[in-house]
Write a structure and sequence with these properties.
With 620 residues, the chain is an alpha+beta fold. The chain has 15 helices and 28 strands. Helix 5 packs antiparallel against helix 15, helix 6 runs parallel beside helix 8 and helix 9 packs antiparallel against helix 10. The protein starts with a helix and ends in a 12-residue tail after the last helix.
């Protein structure tokens, strides 16, 4: 029997490709181990990531032992190139999900969704093997391909069709849904393989050869043109651009929504129960994501994301749901797929997310801050947007004194979270600012009175005098990394005595090997298993260093955190601070947002402060 370590690659060994509607994860062995079609949150086509035996994969690799593997994205693109070196030659595999500018789709028909793979021998002679083993609907449907000769292999199910075409001859495995093939390539030989999905008849037959080569070139140009619009030109530009490309990849183009991650149930601790479905869109991420998009110069994406935010929340307003799907639907009922063993035998595998109906009061502040960020850039606000925002402000006045589950979605019940209360203050302050600027009309006296009450409560009950720190919950003594965001949202100056001492306490209690945990490991959050450090929190930490004027430390620590990325510049949700291994869903959008904002904050602080004024005190 194989051990989990033999069957499952480390999370950091994966790359991601996508087409702004769905995404695929590809390992260093040339295997696509995760793909959902037609959307990020659709049932899987390949899910070996969550069950190596039955999940299904699409692999292209040398049949020989491989002495080394090198991979890269082709410049500033989301086109992946993996190079295998064997004893007889060198094989290069190029993977993409074709995408292009609008005019490309007007000139010719494209499949709705496609995985395009090019395998070429660049040196010597290399025998290649192909295995295409789809297991649709989370490996819950039996399927078989229909061989249509030169047109490829077709599989129809539930109104959808998968089409596999290959210039490497493929043969169906008797009694299985799998396609296999082998062929020896010599230097200069090139072969294309394609797997497509269409959910409406007639399906578009993917063309290979020179046509596929042109599609590859168009996709490269699309990503390069998009990346070339990035206006950031400071330190760590490569990491910022890679983060921006990752965010764009995880954007659902038809609506403008950005998913938290394209995966579900990658564990935050091997063998633990912290396995969640992140293929949805969190309001919590709104303001910081919008800030990142606008600061980088991606105004179209900023407008689309903001439009999605308000159109999505309108049906439930003034109540806000924690998360929505890419079309704004609210029913994200959580269920367990018990037939899948989970990554490295770490069940449960979950679909849907039970936190969707929690109360998170901080989302009001984040959504209204996003609106404020939008107005600062666009100088406009539709009438119905104005009414929506005022209704949210009134809801904050009515509910800020309630306990909630908080930013980290604990499942141990509701508490009076300090950060949630502070974000309620932020919500009202942003609305008062919008009122003064003429964009909304609010009950000024009421909002000012409630904002004063919120601030008094936070300062009296959310700050522990003995600890000399803001704390996670009113009257408590536990730290919380989210408190590092108080200066970001304008609740408190970073240089204020209370924030400086909070910063010091967070470093004392939450830091490990240069990374930050979101809260102490023994916090009662409803689970017994441990978790890793949050990459996102480390980027918040670096912003605080910059806001304190400790710029040398900010730069150094940003470089250290970026150093935890995998070889392609990608981050998961969490990092094991002892080993550097990735934990949690991958890639994680909010972590990449944190990287972008940290780099921007540090760069701006450097531009505003003379070198002579850089402080270098002890981190404590």
């Amino acid at each position: 029997m194989h051990s989990p370590d033999d069957q499952y690659a480390p999370i950091e060994d994966y790359a991601v490709i996508g087409d702004c509607a769905s995404a695929a994860l590809i390992g260093t062995d040339g295997a696509i181990d995760w793909l959902c079609w037609p959307r990020f949150d659709s049932p899987s086509i390949f899910a070996a990531l969550l069950d190596a035996e039955r999940g299904g994969r699409f692999q292209v690799r040398p049949t020989q032992d491989v002495s080394s593997v090198e991979r890269r994205y082709m410049g500033d693109t989301n086109v992946l190139e993996t190079t295998f070196t064997t004893e007889t030659g060198v094989l290069r595999l190029t993977d993409l999900m074709p995408v292009g500018p609008p005019e490309a789709y007007r000139r010719e028909l494209w499949p709705t969704h496609e995985i395009l793979r090019r395998v070429e021998c660049v040196e010597g002679t290399v025998p290649v093997q192909v295995a295409c083993e789809p297991q649709v609907e989370y490996a819950q449907l039996d399927l078989s391909f229909e061989d249509r000769g030169a047109h490829g292999f077709f599989y129809n199910y539930d109104g959808a069709v998968l089409i596999a075409r290959s210039e490497v001859p493929l043969t169906p495995s008797p009694g299985q849904n799998a396609l296999y093939g082998e062929q020896t390539l010599r230097a200069g030989d090139r072969r294309f393989l394609s797997l497509t999905y269409d959910d409406e008849a007639p399906a578009v037959l993917p063309l290979l050869g020179d046509h596929a080569q042109r599609k590859l070139a168009r996709t490269i140009n699309y990503w390069r043109d998009w990346a070339g619009q990035c206006e950031y030109d400071g330190p760590y530009r490569d990491a910022v651009v890679r983060s921006a490309l990752t965010l764009k990849l995880m954007t659902f183009a038809p609506s403008g929504a950005i998913v938290a991650a394209p995966t579900t149930s990658l564990p935050e601790a091997i063998g633990g129960e912290r396995n969640w479905d992140y293929r949805y869109c969190w309001l919590r991420d709104a303001a910081l994501t919008l800030r990142a998009l606008y600061e980088l110069g991606y105004e179209d994406e900023g407008r689309a994301f903001f439009s999605w935010l308000l159109h999505t929340t309108r049906p439930t307003a003034p109540e806000l749901q924690v998360m929505y799907d890419v079309h704004g639907n609210t029913n994200l009922t959580e269920r367990t797929l018990s037939h899948l063993e989970g990554y490295r035998q770490s069940p449960p595998v979950r679909v849907g997310n039970g936190a969707h109906d929690q109360l998170q009061l901080d989302t009001y502040g984040e959504l209204i801050s996003a609106a404020y960020e939008f107005v600062r850039r666009e100088h406009e606000l539709d009438p119905w947007h104005r009414r929506l925002l005022v209704s949210l402000g009134n809801e904050v006045c009515a509910r800020w004194e309630e306990p909630d589950e908080g930013i980290w979605e604990v499942r141990s019940g509701r508490h009076h979270h300090t950060f949630s209360k502070a974000m309620c203050w932020v919500a009202l302050e942003r609305l008062l600012a919008l009122h003064e600027e003429g964009y909304v009309t609010v009950p000024v006296d009421r909002y000012r009175t409630e904002a004063a009450h919120i601030r008094a409560a936070v300062e009296e009950q959310g700050y522990n005098e003995e600890k000399e720190s803001y704390v996670a919950t009113f009257g408590g003594d536990r730290l919380d990394a989210s408190l590092l965001l108080l200066p970001t949202y304008g609740y408190k100056e970073a240089t204020s005595p209370r924030m400086k001492s909070t910063f010091a306490r967070i470093h004392e209690e939450l830091a490990q090997n240069g990374l930050l945990h979101r809260y102490p490991p023994d916090t009662n959050d409803g689970f017994t298993s441990e978790e890793g450090a949050f990459g996102l929190c480390s980027f918040w930490d670096e912003e605080m260093f910059a806001r304190l004027g400790r710029l040398d430390e900010a730069r150094e620590k940003l470089g250290e955190t970026i150093g935890y990325a995998n070889d392609l510049g990608l981050f998961a949700e969490e990092i094991d601070p002892e080993t550097g291994a990735f934990l949690g869903n991958f890639p994680q959008a909010f972590t990449h947002v944190g990287l972008i904002n940290a780099a921007i904050t540090i760069t701006k602080a450097e531009e505003e402060a003379p070198t002579a004024l850089h402080e270098q005190p002890d981190p404590q």
